Amino acid sequence: MLDFAELRNRILNGEDELPEEVMESPLMEEFLRPATGLPLVFGGLSVLFVVMDKLKLEILAQEGEYNYRPIVLSVFGFLPLGFGFGELLRGLSAQKQFDRYEKLVVAAEEEVTRLTEEEEEQEAQDNANQDNYQAESFFNLSPLSADTGVFAGPLVGQQQPMIGPAPTYEQRTFGW
């Protein structure tokens, strides 16, 4: 007998479940590359530092001194951010192109496999047909037996007995 309460508890607690393979998103995969992730983090932190400085810290622009905010914002903020976003978009398009290429390779391999199987099947069929022709004796002596040959046909003398090699497939089919 099945205990439904135990079954319900196992399902709700997640027991007997196979762990699924965690697939990273393409965005996360590209972000974890150092050439993409570091400029994005550095640029984001620089922009955050400039915003915090503007709101509260007042380190970059003190009275009577040079205002460093535009330099820090452009060189250390927007330039790395732009580079990081460019790398991110380039990586995503490269992953998409790679996926398309993989699909093309898989489809081509399936087509080659299908054609190879068809060719092998056709070759096996041709070999079976060739074996049937080769199974016939080299010398066709059947017309010399009593039930076949000159005296077996409807018209006596109209069929000549054959002594020698059996006619080939081409001779029987095409006449040459």
Polypeptide structure, described:
The chain is an all-alpha fold and 176 residues long. The mean pLDDT is 77. The chain has five helices and no strands. Helix content is 64%, strand content 0%. Helix 3 (34-57) packs antiparallel against helix 4 (69-135). It has a domain at 24-92.
Short description:
With 176 residues, this protein is an all-alpha fold. The chain has a domain at 24-92. The protein is 64% helix and 0% strand.
Number of strands: 0
Shape: elongated
C-alpha Rg (nearest Å):
42 Å
Note the main sheet.
none
Distance between the ends = 80 Å
Rounded average pLDDT: 77
Beta-strand content = under 5%
Unreliably modeled segments: none
Provide the fold topology.
Elements: H1 4-13, H2 26-31, H3 34-57, H4 69-135, H5 169-174
Helix pairs in contact: 3-4
Keywords:
176 residues, mainly alpha, elongated
